[in-house]
Amino acid sequence: MIFRLPADVFVATTPIDLRLSFDRLAGVVREQLGADPRGEALFVFHNRRMTHVKILWHNTGGYWLLYKRLDRGRFRIPLPIPEDATRVQISRRELATLLEGIDMSIIRAARKSCRSRKSVSAKSAR
């Protein structure tokens, strides 16, 4: 079986209870995101800590539910523009990047390195 993912991918901007399954998530798509859950689109949901995502997709007469939990790190959920937007549209490429997640230890190490460089350059400027 070959899958052809839809071009439209929407990410919910607010975290939800990921214990919800097919029908309840379809209701969230309809009521909160203002979209048709049976339309040609993927809908991405995340938890508050951004460590888990669920993707709802309707294809050929049925729903697919994909679930991913990171071993470590967080998913990089896009910021809504405008701020009160309930969903953000992303490309399939951006979805692939989102699903890779971010290892927060690498981010912390990079920030620490930047801070130490700034303090060294400030001392040498004196």
What does it look like?
The chain has one domain (8-125). Helix content is 33%, strand content 25%. The chain has helices spanning 22-31, 92-100, 104-125, and strands at residues 8-12, 41-46, 52-59, 62-69, 87-90. A 5-stranded mixed sheet has the order 4-3-2-1-5. It is elongated, with a radius of gyration of 19 Å.
Produce the secondary structure layout.
Elements: E1 8-12, H1 22-31, E2 41-46, E3 52-59, E4 62-69, E5 87-90, H2 92-100, H3 104-125
Parallel strand pairs: 1-2
Antiparallel strand pairs: 1-5, 2-3, 3-4
List keywords for this structure.
alpha+beta, elongated, 33% helix, five-stranded mixed β-sheet, 126 residues
SSE string, helix = H, strand = E?
Answer: EHEEEEHH
Total individual domains: 1
Measured distance between first and last alpha carbons: 67 Å
Q: Poorly predicted ranges (pLDDT <50, ≥5 residues)?
A: none
Main sheet overview: 5 strands, mixed
Arrangement of strands in the largest sheet:
4-3-2-1-5
Residues in helices, as a percent range: 25-40%
The helix-and-strand class reads alpha+beta
Radius of gyration (Å)? 19 Å
- Give the total of beta strands: 5
Total DSSP helices: 3
Compute the average pLDDT: 87
What share of the residues does DSSP label as strand, in percent? Answer: 15-25%
Basic shape? elongated
